[in-house]
Write a structure and sequence with these properties.
The protein has 6 helices and 5 strands; from the N terminus they run βββββαααααα. A hairpin with a 3-residue loop joins β1 and β2. It has 2 domains: about 80 residues, OB fold (Dihydrolipoamide Acetyltransferase, E2P), CATH 2.40.50; about 110 residues, de novo design (two linked rop proteins), CATH 1.20.1440. The model has no long low-confidence stretch (mean pLDDT about 90). The chain has a 5-stranded mixed β-barrel with strand order 1-2-3-5-4. The protein is α+β, with helices and mostly antiparallel strands.
C-alpha cells in the first residue's frame, strides 16, 4: 500500500459505517478524491478536529484496493472567522457544494486548488453581506470559467448575478444546488 503527502480542502463529508467518515477532498496533487477516515467519528479521534470543511489540510493518503484511506491529517491554514459567522458559513458551504458537484474525480488542476484557497482566504477576511456576495460571485464565475463552462451572464446587480450563476451551475450539474435556498434567504434578507 503506497502513500502520498498532499494538501487538500474538504468539500463535504458523510458517514461511513458506524464510526468512519467518507471525505470528498480536492487535493493539490490528485484532484478530487473520496477517502475513508477510519474511526474519524469517534469522540476521541485525533483526525476529526482536523477534517474541517473550512481549512486547508495536509494529508497522508494511503492507496487501498477499493478506497483511498486517510492515514493522517493536520490543519495547515484554518479559516476561523468563517466558522464564527452564520452567513459566511452558508456562503462557504454553498461554494464548496457547487465545487463538489461540478468537479470530476481524479483530475488534478492547480488553478482550481488555488481558486478554492483564494475563496476561503478572502471570505475569511470579509466583514459584510455585500463583501460575501462579491467574493462568492467572483469565485463562482471564475470556477465555472476554469472548468470550461464559459458563463455569459448579463445581470444588472450582484443578487441577480448570484441567481444566474446558481441556475447555470445547477443546469451544468444537472441537479439542484441544495444549499442555495438557505443562502438566498440568509444573504438577501
Amino acid at each position: 500500500m503506497s502513500t502520498i503527502l498532499t494538501n487538500g480542502i474538504v468539500l463535504r463529508c458523510q458517514p461511513h459505517k458506524d464510526y468512519d467518515g467518507e471525505y470528498f477532498i480536492y487535493t493539490s496533487d490528485l484532484g478530487k478524491i473520496m477517502a475513508i477516515a477510519t474511526g474519524a467519528k469517534r469522540p476521541v479521534s485525533k483526525m476529526n478536529p482536523h477534517l474541517s470543511q473550512l481549512a486547508e489540510v495536509e494529508l497522508m493518503i494511503a492507496h487501498g484496493e477499493v478506497y483511498e484511506r486517510l492515514a493522517s491529517v493536520r490543519i495547515k491554514t484554518g479559516y476561523r472567522r468563517i466558522s464564527g459567522n452564520l452567513t459566511a458559513m452558508a456562503v462557504a458551504s454553498y461554494f464548496l457544494e457547487v465545487a463538489d458537484v461540478l468537479i470530476r474525480f481524479n483530475y488534478p488542476d492547480q488553478e482550481v486548488f488555488e481558486l478554492l484557497k483564494s475563496f476561503l482566504s478572502e471570505l475569511d477576511g470579509a466583514k459584510s453581506n455585500e463583501e460575501y456576495l462579491l467574493i462568492l460571485n467572483r469565485h463562482l464565475f471564475e470556477l465555472l470559467k476554469v472548468l470550461g463552462y464559459e458563463p455569459s451572464i448579463s445581470a444588472k446587480n450582484q443578487r441577480q448575478l448570484l441567481r444566474d450563476l446558481n441556475r447555470l451551475a445547477g443546469e451544468t450539474a444537472e441537479r439542484k444546488i441544495n444549499s442555495f435556498d438557505f443562502l438566498e434567504r440568509l444573504i438577501f434578507s
